[in-house]
Amino acid sequence: MTQVVLITGATSGFGMAAAKRFAKAGWSIVISGRRKERLEQLADEISAEANVLIMPLDVRDSDAVKEAIKSLPKEFLPLNAVINNAGLALSPKPAQEVDLEDWHTMIDTNVKGLVNVAHATLPSLIEAGEGATMINVGSIAGQWPYPGSHVYGASKAFVKQFSYNLRCDLLGTGVRVTDLAPGIAETEFTLVRTKGDQAASDKLYQGTTPLSAEDIAEQMFYITTLPSHICINRVEVMPTRQAWSAFAIDRD
Fold it and tell me: Is the pTM of this model over 0.85?
């Protein structure tokens, strides 16, 4: 029986790479994102390998999320996996210089959007039963603070704890939940965070070897296809060339 995966934030980065990886393995795929034209392009690219359904959707709209999941065709049900990937970072400036609207956007997307998708898809995952998997995409920023992380890091800390708490509530259902927390990865992430500053994005990745979207997609596929009795609670993935710094100290 064909496995079905729903991927949010599939218009770029981790989500797009995940769609290609699962398609390669022959899964049926529901790809979701706000940019319909990108979803259509992606569907065209992978449709030779997989049955694909596009779902233009803003995860911040709880009613739209509910209706979209409720309206899934029978051939895309039940969901065997949900890649809860839609999210973003904004304003890498110090907290005292950030527009409040940017904080609200991160909370609405990374927290509210994530729980909207989780709440709407859990019944289908439970129906699928043993081996069904929800991957919530967090970040090392949810564990380790750094300047300019403010609400972004706090939102990813929510992802971590929410995933752990779901594990407790889902005990006995066969459904697995993983917080997948990447480190520095070269995607559109920094372009979005800096509102289109290509130079800032190039500078961040210059002279090092960051993770790629494909690296994270491979982790997603691995987690999802483990034997059903194995659940990885959290995966923190950093490139070899990234590590922690000493504590900052303010001096006179």
Answer: yes
